[in-house]
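User: quick one, fold this
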Amino acid sequence: MKNVAFLLLVPLMAGLFSCRTNEDLELKYPRKLNGESISSEMLPTGVDVPVKGVMEAGKTYYITGDIFVNTGDTLYLEEGVKVILLGNFSFYISGVLISQGTQANPNYFTIPDTTRARFPEGGAWGGLMCDSARSVMIHWTHIQHAGGPDDSNDPRYAFSCINSLVKPLIIHDSWIEYSYDDGARFYGTRDISLLRNHFIRNGGPEGEALNLQKGVTGTIAYNVFWSAATNCMKIYTDEVVLNPQTNLLIHNNTFVNTGYRRVQKPGNAILFDRWVRGTIVNNLFVNCRQSLRLTNAIDKNNTVYGYNLFYGELDNAQWQTSTRSRFYPLGDYGTPQATDLMNTNPEFVSLDLSYVNAQNINLAPNSNNIRLKPNSPAIGAGNRTYNADLGAYPTDGQGNKH
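Assistant:
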């Protein structure tokens, strides 16, 4: 096997998320690390044969057991890498994970085409377990059909980071799709950067797209959330301990068709609860069972919200009425703001308004195109500190790329 060298790019993160998103997120202070090219199609597995090095551009790798990346080691995926999970296995990252896909050649963590029909809600393999990772950078990467059960038969998460030491943690321009439980769960993770991603059909009978608790900080912007089972974002600090405090900047995201699968408990596009603080602006909430829920338990003095658009239009009259009455659920702290656009059609290029579509597994069929028409009222309605427009696809080109 050949020896290759690659760059581990370590950004200067201090102060990055204090007031606005750095859209380019300039990565500074590169350090050269040596890694050995992984040429075998079948990776070694097990704690006694940990994996490190470079998965080569354009190659396919088949996983037949749990993968371990130890502290001090790095697993680097060049562009166009496809990782095929052949069973209910996970990646356990204690070192560094870098998946450097590109727009032209994205990377995949997925399952064989022949088994996709068996796992429409996910659960085919474990996920990326980064609970003890030191650094994670994921660009232009699909993470699909994860959430398989652990040894206790509890579903896992497509991506997990219960870790306050990882730095940086970047997920940009990627897809977390068809996870049986949470798409991603972060506890205590600092300075996260989640930009321009798609979170598609996370949660089977229940589950969130993002579950953020216990002091998570950072920026979540220009993402598309489609049909989460319960909440697109469930955001807490802690039931008892109020420090470190969860503090997030959430702007220019588009939420569509969320919260319908868990019938007994309405899901929210954003649930802000239990001593959370932050800023929530420039978002689009469309046909969500409940849209923006800011409970009475949040840090009211340090939470800013407004400049959001809400819309409910379904072919089921009962659900349409219910959706419109829950843009801000009654009885909570959150209420419509003067800068909000209430029950205003965002004028997407096209959207199937059927209740069946609201429960659909994907954006398919292609009648759903949630970019903005030129006459959209979301254009020019934003808080300009972040963007002049609302939603994940603003007209300045800074938003979602897929």
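User: anything notable?
Assistant: The first strand starts at residue 3 and ends at 9.
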